[in-house]
What we know:
- Chain A is mainly beta.
- Chain A folds into two domains: about 5-15 and about 35-90, no CATH class; about 90-220, Methylamine Dehydrogenase, Chain H, CATH 2.130.10.
- Chain A is about 0% helix and about 45% strand.
- Chain A has no helices and 18 strands.
- Chain A has strands spanning about 10-15, 35-40, 50-55, 65-70, 70-80, 85-90, 100-105, 115-120, 120-125, 130-135, 145-150, 155-160, 165-170, 180, 190-195, 200-205, 210-215, 235-240.
- In chain A, the strands form five sheets. Chain A has a four-stranded antiparallel beta sheet with strand order 3-4-5-6, with no helix packed on it. In chain A, strands 7-8-9-10 form a four-stranded antiparallel beta sheet, with no helix packed on it. In chain A, strands 11-12-13-14 form a four-stranded antiparallel beta sheet, with no helix packed on it.
- Chain B is an all-alpha fold.
- Among the domains of chain B are: about 395-430 and about 440-580, no CATH class; about 600-635 and about 690-780, no CATH class.
- Chain B is about 75% helix and about 0% strand.
- Chain B has helices spanning about 1-15, 25-40, 40-45, 60-70, 70-170, 170-180, 185-200, 205-230, 240-250, 255-280, 300-325, 335-355, 365-385, 390-430, 440-465, 475-510, 510-515, 520-550, 560-595, 610-630, 670-680, 695-715, 720-740, 745-760, 770-780.
- The radius of gyration of chain B is 66 Å and the shape is elongated.
- Chain A: Pfam families: Beta-prop_EIPR1 (PF23609).
- Chain A: This is EIPR1 protein.
Amino acid sequence: SDSKVMTCAAVWRMPKELESGSHESPDDSSSNTQTLELLCHLDNTAHGNMACVMWEPMGDGKKIVSLADNNILLWDLQESSAKAVLSSSAALEGKGQLKFTSGRWSPHHNCTQIATANDTTVRGWDTRSMRQIYCIENAHGQLVRDLDFNPNKQYYLASCGDDCKVKFWDTRNVTEPVKTLEEHSHWVWNVRYNHSHDQLILTGSSDSRVILSNMVSISSEPFGHMVDDDELSDQEDQHQEEK
Amino acid sequence: MAEMEAAAGSGAGGSPEDGTGSTGSGWRRPHGPLQRYYGPSAAEAAPDPADINGPHFDPEVFLTKVRSECPLGQLLAREAALGREIRALDSDMQTLLYENYNKFISATDTIRKMKVDFRRMEAEMDDLAANMAAISTSSARVSAALQDRHRRGAQLAGTGGSWGGLGSLVEVPGRLRRWAAPGAEPARALRCHARARAVLRHYRHLPSFRAIEDESHAIMAELAQRLRARLRDETLDPKELTECVEMLLQLEEPPEELCEEFLSHAGARLEAELAALEAELPTADPSGAAATPPPASDILDFVDRGSSAFVGSLCLLAASYRSLFEGRPGAGDGRLEAFAATLTTRYFELLERRLALERGLGDTSLLVRALDRFHRRLRALLELLPAAGAEAGAALVARAARERVDRYLRALQTFFLGCLGDVRQALAAPRPPGKEGPGLPDLLATLASSILGQLKAVLAYVQLFTARDVAFASLPYFKGEFCVAAVREGLVVAFVRWLCRTARGFADGPAERGAPAAPPALLLLLARLCLDYEATTISYILTLTDEQFPPQDTGPAVTPGPALCAEARGAAQRLLDHYVQVQGAAVAQMLRKSVETRDWLGTVEPRNVRAVMKRVVEDITAIDVQVGQLFEEGVRRAQSSDSSRRAFSVYSSSRAPGRYAPSYTPSAPMDTHLLSNIQKLFSERIDIFSPVEFNKVSVLTGIIKISLKTLLECVRLRTLGRFGLQQVQVDGHYLQLYLWRFAADERVVQGLLDEVAASAAHRCLDPVPMEHSVVELICERG
């Protein structure tokens, strides 16, 4: 066996039959019945472990951003995705060993913004200039685990982390969170908006709980245009098998 | 005659037959001469009928006695003697009768003569009466005639007097001129003029008198002019001013105008006094009064001067105004009140500004005395001028008191922060090796006692405001609202609340926003402090306050003690939870770093427990000591007998029976996974960041849970080689060996460590566990 563990990234093609939904990141596990077709590797030998890979949300599937250690790498897929060319990159400099833990590509603003998390800080980047555009220092008391953009409401960003909290931010004013949820009793690993009904937020935590929150007040339809609002309970706890 | 007299005498007695009784001496006395006359024996001896001179003479008895007793010779002698005696008596009687007759005749003559005389006199009397009547009529006539003359005479005499007075009137202008001259005695001139004026007015139809009147009027006008000029003179003192105005009033100058002048003049004086007071105050500096020097004199001095100069003058002014203009038209209608109200308002403003300068705590007794003096003087003024702002004055005092209480609250807060600073310093101070610094209990005791002491001192100071000898303490505000709203709520309750909030702030604030976090020991200390407050201190403080400032029954609602206690308990809980989280996070961070930085694939076969695990155990032991200094032990769940010796590893086939799954094989990782999840369904759920109880065991359990859960989460993200797994096994056993004793329920520790091992096995490329005996050996070696 290898003496070193290295996290890599690659682009795969899913079997035709399954291509109805879009996956956010290439899966590195193979299914038993159908096999994935490897298209190309994202060469990260110079940049360290891959932490996160993101497709351009509204694009034609030609652009990928990946986070490797303290680098943001923007890739162009060429020759029918047979080759990934590093088009631009940026490195996060600072004291100590900085490592990105997570990132999201904003579907707004013509897909020119991404948000990244490293340690307790959330940063926003412009993909055209590869410069930092905002920074939320100490967004969480401890490590920030995940981020997600509101699909219907630009500037709105959700984050979660080891302080058991889920926070909602307006990236135009990052001094205070818009709202904070403290429902989990251990680290919150993931947070996701529902793609169409953005008041629904799903969070997963190592307290063995997945919580679905109905956050109408900070959604794109704060006055409840949906008929079946009442049918959605505020929070649904489901026990899920731990990963 | 003698017998007649005797009969008359006894008749006068009214009761002749009874000789005894109280009136005996009354009738006996007239009989005295008779008895003496008839011989004493007759009265004393039994009536002797034989006594010839006795009243009870009985001739038969006498004769019988004489005849029986006496010899014949003697009888004859007696007969002769009696015969003589009878004749002598007869002749006496005749003589007396004759004399009586003579006297009667002469009396008759005299009466006849008198009759004649009287008749003559009667005629003369009639004459006299007629004469007297004549005299009285003529006298009335004379006096009637004279009356007219007399009246005319008196009239003439009066006219003569007036002529003399009128003559002196001529001198009036001269005198007036002399007295009304500048620097002379205008008062005398006025008196003189007042006397002359009526007369002059009476005779003004006479040209000469009119001239005099005109002249004196001119003089008086001139005088008035001069007096008015004088009135405008700034240097006039109040007494002179009053005199001046009084004279002008006597000159019948229009009172309204005078009133105006009087007030404006007095106003100028009072303004000057206010300005003198104001000069002591630093100029109102809107840019911020940071650099203003401390006031030259203390507040008592200021109030003293203010009240003696300004309030005194105002009182004087009001009194003289009253005496001058009382009852005159156009001078009433609240002009004085308005005037005084304006001035007192300014005075209050000045005083308020001066009070605002009392920034420091200074001497409260001084302030109280100053306010007391102010209040007393003001009350004196209010008796004269009820409209001069009684409410404003009382409100000013109340505000000043309130302000001082607020300042005390701030001082208390500063003091508390200072104490906290000291505690932090003591905690942070580097300790020389081998020498322990002050223990946490000492620090806590010092902190608590100094805060309580300070609070008591402040209450004692504030109590000065309600002291019995302070006049304003009897105001309703100071009896009710001040005690409740200002002191109890505004000072004591606010301080306790603030203390709880501040303590909470250490738990809520800093970790989020990068401010320097409080040292964990401080959190622990504050948690204990808040807990103590909840248990005893709050009720003690409130009782003390209610004793010193008895609340009114009808006063505003007060914050009940239990509400405060709940707040304190909330703060204590929050602090302790935060302490657990901070300490847990510190240990967790250590574990995470150690897991993340290690290459678990390429590691060599474990020979030792990793240093970081020893460090973890050391740290938790230190935390145990720290918490033990302030909190009680707490209860542990009953332990199984073989707790420390129990085998640790999910792979161990020698597990104690009855634990989770009795046996399963390491060669089936899927089964292991499934089984461990099924176990979890039946075991107690572990809340990692759950609130802890106020005891050592609970706190330690919380910290250990956080640490081990972190270890679990980190391990399951790694990929391990065989020796990596074995190292985890060794480390886990070591932790189990040393941590169970701190936890409330060792099964919690056990469960988490089992999960760590299970995760590690799940993430292992070559899951071959170490022999349990070897693990134990390594751990025992240290």
